[in-house]
Structures are given as structure tokens and as C-alpha cells.
Amino acid sequence: MEMTSRPGERRFYAELLTLLGAPQRPRADIAQMEQAALRIMEAIGVQVLVIDEVHNILAGTYREQRIVLNLRFLSNRLQISLVCFGVNEAREAISGDVQLARRFEQFTLSRWAANEQFETLVASILRNTPLRRSSVLTPKSLRRILQITEGITASIFHVINSLAIEAIVSGREHLTDEAVENWEPEFDAEAAFA
Predict the structure, then answer these.
(1) What is the DSSP letter of 111?
(2) Rounded to an integer, what distance in angstroms lies between the CA atom of residue 37 and that of residue 14?
(3) What number of other Cβ atoms are within 10 A of residue 12's Cβ?
(4) Same domain as 92, residue 14
(5) CA distances from 119 to 35, 113, 142, 144, 145 (A)
(6) 30-44 and 9-19 helices cross at what angle (nearest 10)?
(7) DSSP label of 82
(8) DSSP 8-state symbol, 104
(9) Cα separation of 108 and 111, whole Å?
(10) 0.70 exceeded by the pTM?
């Protein structure tokens, strides 16, 4: 699941119930939502709860943070593992609860570098793009993708997806070195000035 942008117990359980495909009563209180989530997770045998964007916890008030950080309750009650993802601030968010922080081993994902692993990643992404023709990129194009994305995984996927869409729209149906060389990120003026 993804931690909501404005965390709170009600929003957390609403998101969890939605992902579990559970019907929600508009007037349900938090205790009812919590119990419904626990029953469903137990019934379907959830073993791991993966939460992305954990750093969003910091957007809440101190009280909201403390309530949402009570994730260890789910872990204890259901005997499941918790896996949390986020940017550097995720560590700060989780460290707000000492008992919860002790349960996590922290890992930092390194940025991709110009090496065989990066080439394998790009080749794998290209194999899975819905293009009619295969795409083979030169080392120069791979370096360009690495430069544009600064080696950040999500950015690499974004660039290749954008290039794939462009290839479909143009009718080329494959990625070319020229397309990589000419690729420019879209500029969203509204977001820049929001």
C-alpha cells in the first residue's frame, strides 16, 4: 500500500481496506475499520504488509504521526512482517517510534552506475515494454539515460516509459538512440508554480 499524503488513522485504514477490496461503510468509526482490516488480512493470510512512501507520515501532526506509527500493532496482532519504503525522510518518520524503529533493518538503495547491472536493468525493461519491435540501445544512449535520471530507479522507468509511448505514437514501435538523445523531460508549469 502507499502511505497517504496526509496521514491519519482513518485515511490509513480506508486505504488499506480499499486495497483489500473491502466494501466500506461511510459512517464506520476507526475501531470498526481497524477490525475489518484485521479480519480480512487474517482471512486471506497476509504475511507481509509493504508500505511505500512512508516519509508521508511526517506530513501529519505529531499526534497523527504517533497514531500511524502504531503499525507494530498490525505486525503483532497478525504476526506479519512490515516492509517500508521511502526517501531519506522515511528513516526520520519511523524513528519517531523507538519500538517500531527497532524492528527495522534499514537499507539504502544505491544509484545505478554505468556497469553491467545497469545494462541488464535497461535490457529487462526494454524486453517488457509493449513495443512491436525490439529495442537495442548503444552504450552512448545508456550513458544518456543514466545522466538524465541521475541513476534513480523510478526515473529510469519514467524515461523509458516516456520513450516507449513516443515510439508507439510515432509508429516506430521501438526505442532508438536518436530518440534517447533528443528526449527532454516534460515541464509542468502548473506544478512548478504551485
Answers:
(1) P
(2) 9
(3) 25
(4) yes
(5) 47, 9, 7, 12, 11
(6) 30
(7) E
(8) -
(9) 9
(10) no
CA–CA distance, 60 with 67 (Å, rounded to integer): 10
Q: What is the pLDDT of residue 193?
A: 47
**Together in a domain, 88 and 133:** no
Q: Read off the C-alpha cell for 35.
A: 477490525
Q: What is the CATH number of the domain that holds 130?
A: 1.10.8.60
Rg of the chain taking only CA atoms, in angstroms: 21
For residue 190, the model assigns a pLDDT of 47
Helix ranges (H only) for the chain are 9-19, 30-44, 62-68, 72-78, 89-94, 98-102, 116-127, 139-149, 153-170, 177-182, 189-192
- Whole domain around residue 47: which residue ranges? 9-102
Strand-pairing partners, residue 123, are none
The DSSP call for residue 103 is: T
Q: Which residues of the chain register pLDDT less than 50?
A: 189-194
d(CA 177, CA 144): 10
In angstroms, rounded to a whole number, what is the distance separating the alpha carbons of residues 151 and 80? 33
pLDDT digits (tens, 9 = 90+) for 95-113: 888 888 888 888 888 899 9
162 and 82 both lie in a single domain: no
How far apart are the C-alpha atoms of 4 and 164, rounded to whole Å?
Answer: 30
Q: In this predicted structure, what is the pLDDT of residue 62?
A: 84
Q: What was the pLDDT predicted at 187?
A: 61
